[in-house]
Design goal:
430 residues, alpha+beta, Beta-galactosidase, Chain A, domain 5, 2 domains, 11 helices, 12 strands, elongated, disordered C terminus
Length: 430
């Protein structure tokens, strides 16, 4: 006590068991004249499965006393791909400022102690799908100490870590332990941003994480509402996203069509006023105004095309790290969180992307660069997506297929419009 440190696991403890509203196990002992009691309460409510409420009381504890709790040194692999599971080993913690930080085992040095000052709301050790988290009940943890362990191989499989908890004036320390799956709804139920124990996307975390949260909530709601397999939920989700974006894409594509029709006139103006940039700019602005456009119209027209990208990035990380999709089969796929063993979904994604691009190029002015990109991009993305989660490929393929009718309708609309000829410029300016 005080400046002395006593290891509780070296002292005999008396145990009592009390089945109340929660299953309660109490350990008691005396240390240097101080009565010590440890109580573990296991809630009977299934919503609180994997949760343990821990309270410790030290009678007449000296001021400044601390309870030191050692974190597990590691979590055993639970996946067929043990290397991937071990590479996900990390310690996460949330400061009282609201920041969630993650430190991979591979970043810890065995020759140096990494001290993270408090206050800290929770700290957890995790692998790909499971975690053991310690959450402060009332008084935040005062410090977190981490240190690496000499490696036995290339992968850092263990670490030493501990958290310090101030003993209250009444001699009590209280905290919760969650030891279970990284289930999104369970962790959200616990609160305190514990659902972000596995922060996504590195430096893009601030952008991707909100979309990942929204995507997970939408997919889980659709799953509960429809009772469909997650594969069909992804199909439905892809179609819904495309329908929501239909008006924006429609406006963007029509803006692009209008810009293509204006190109002959704009090129003629650039040629006519090549020696007078000021007049050239004024003439171009006048053309934009006459057609209800602005110099920002091309950029704004591209924006709706980029809106699905955050969702795509979010889904990439969701499929890589979300236990809800683990082991979910769909049609020929044994696990939508893993790559397609037959590469059907990435090939379907690539083919659908090519068809969508080919239809979109119909009735467009000749553009060798755009034509080359329409061939190259589907090939490049197919190769890139070959080993991505099959569910992600399924979603992307559905997005492409759902966009084909819109591309076809706009291609027909484009075919009915004649481009503005450069000769019309002289007629309108004379």
């Amino acid at each position: 006590m005080g400046r002395d440190t006593v290891a509780l696991d070296t002292i005999p403890l008396r145990v009592t068991y009390a089945p109340l509203a929660a299953q309660v196990v109490t350990y008691a002992t005396d240390i240097v004249g101080h009565a010590v009691r440890l109580m573990y309460a296991f809630p009977l409510d299934t919503a609180d499965s994997y949760l343990v409420h821990v309270s410790t009381n030290v009678a007449n504890a000296p001021p400044g006393s601390m309870l030191l709790v050692e974190l597990p040194q590691t979590l055993l692999p639970s996946q067929a791909d043990t290397v991937d599971d071990l590479n996900h080993l990390a310690v996460s913690y949330r400061s009282s400022r609201g920041e969630v930080n993650s430190v991979s085992f591979s970043k810890l040095d065995s020759a140096e102690v990494r001290a993270e000052p408090g206050p800290i709301n929770w700290a957890a050790i995790r692998n790909k799908y499971f975690l053991v988290a310690y959450r402060a009940s009332k008084i935040p943890f005062s410090a977190l100490r981490l240190q690496g362990v000499p490696r036995k191989g290339k992968i850092a499989e263990e670490m030493h870590g501990s958290i310090a908890m101030p003993v209250g004036v009444d001699g009590t320390v209280a905290f919760d332990i969650y030891a279970g799956p990284q289930n999104f709804e369970r962790l959200q139920h616990l609160g305190g941003d514990l659902d972000q124990v596995n922060p996504y996307a590195g430096f893009l975390h601030g952008v991707v994480q909100p979309f990942a949260t929204m995507v997970m909530k939408a997919l889980l709601w659709m799953k509960r509402t429809t009772q469909l397999n997650y594969g069909w939920v992804l199909v439905l989700f892809g179609v819904i996203v495309r329908l929501i974006l239909w008006p924006l894409n429609q406006g963007a594509m029509r803006t692009s069509m209008k810009m293509q029709r204006l190109q002959p006139e704009l090129q003629a103006l650039q040629k006519k006023y090549s020696d007078d940039p000021k007049k050239q700019q004024e003439a171009i602005m006048k053309v934009y105004k006459e057609h209800g456009m602005s110099p920002l119209s091309p950029l704004m027209g591209c924006l709706p095309m980029l809106l699905p990208m955050p969702v795509l990035f979010a889904l990439y990380y969701v499929f890589q790290n979300t236990i809800e999709f683990r082991g979910v089969s769909f049609l020929w796929l044994s696990d939508i969180s893993l790559r397609d063993p037959y590469y059907i979904t990435p090939l379907l994604m690539g083919v659908s992307m090519f068809v969508m691009s080919w239809i979109g190029m119909r009735n467009s002015p000749p553009n060798p660069q755009a034509k080359m990109m329409s061939y190259m991009m589907p090939v490049m993305l197919t190769v890139l997506f070959l080993n991505f989660a099959s569910g992600l490929n399924l979603y992307y393929a559905v997005q492409n297929i759902a966009a084909i009718p819109q591309q076809w309708l706009l291609a027909r609309e484009r075919g009915k419009q004649a481009p503005i000829s450069s000769g019309s410029l002289d007629k309108r300016r004379t």
